């Protein structure tokens, strides 16, 4: 946790304040606790290994750590090396802004070119196969509702798994959901009918109903009071993919699937880009305003392709 971050050497402890301030800023800007915790873990690793205070670190220290084997004992991939350097460089840019150090030791390093895997989206037939292997149990109905929401809205994993009962509201015969996206962006869009119906069916299986739930209750009941965890859903997804004889994949595949199915349903590249909030900051700002409470005119075609 951010609050527990402490450097391992005695002289480093006074730097815990600036580190905590950096992580708090990172969380505020990204809108994600997960991102800040990831940075915290990397900083903890680096300063634990280097045994130096931030003002003593040089480029060689960064290089040795970035390319070293991690806690897993495996040789780091280029993506891991890049992530380590990026986290540390971001921290030093913050320290320079705060006038705590004069130079960024990461500037002396050439960053490896990241290997970006080709995105893959499921076809409508593959989504149908996946849904067909999920059992009609309370956990299964919940997982099916999550998958449908991911596919039909195109939202990111954290945005969907973080949905609360209070995020949904009815207006003029439609259901809208509010979300907080990457970078702290907020929005409000129509929730496709099949996703809403799956959510209601799932909640009923758990003995719940939207009209009696507290606003802060998770839409995805589980053993934890705050709903199913990301790790638990990921584990369930791998099991479902194996049963459906589909390749292993992360939860992000449903965002790719949403884009693919929208395109297959006739949406233009511009429409898909707007649907996913993909754009530069200026254009995104304009379209976030246009999307405020906007009706979703394409989900019915996607749902029809899925046989829903």
What does this protein look like?
By secondary structure, this protein is mainly alpha-helical. It has two domains: 107 residues, DNA polymerase, domain 1; 182 residues, Orthogonal Bundle (hpI Integrase, Chain A). 50% of the residues lie in helices and 5% in strands. The protein contains 13 helices and three strands. A three-stranded antiparallel beta sheet has the order 1-2-3, with no helix packed on it. Helix 3 runs antiparallel to helix 4 and helix 6 crosses helix 10. The longest helix is centred in the first third of the chain and has 20 residues. The radius of gyration is 22 Å and the shape is elongated. The two termini are 42 Å apart. The N terminus is likely disordered.
Which characteristics define this entry?
3 strands; hpI Integrase, Chain A; elongated; disordered N terminus; single chain; mainly alpha; 3-stranded antiparallel beta sheet; about 300 residues; DNA polymerase, domain 1
TL;DR of this structure?
This protein has 308 residues and is mainly alpha-helical. It has helices at residues 16-30, 33-50, 59-66, 78-97, 124-132, 138-153, 157-161, 193-205, 230-243, 253-264, 269-275, 281-290, 299-305, and strands at 168-171, 174-180, 186-190. It folds into two domains: 2-108, DNA polymerase, domain 1, CATH 1.10.150; 124-305, Intergrase catalytic core (hpI Integrase, Chain A), CATH 1.10.443.10.
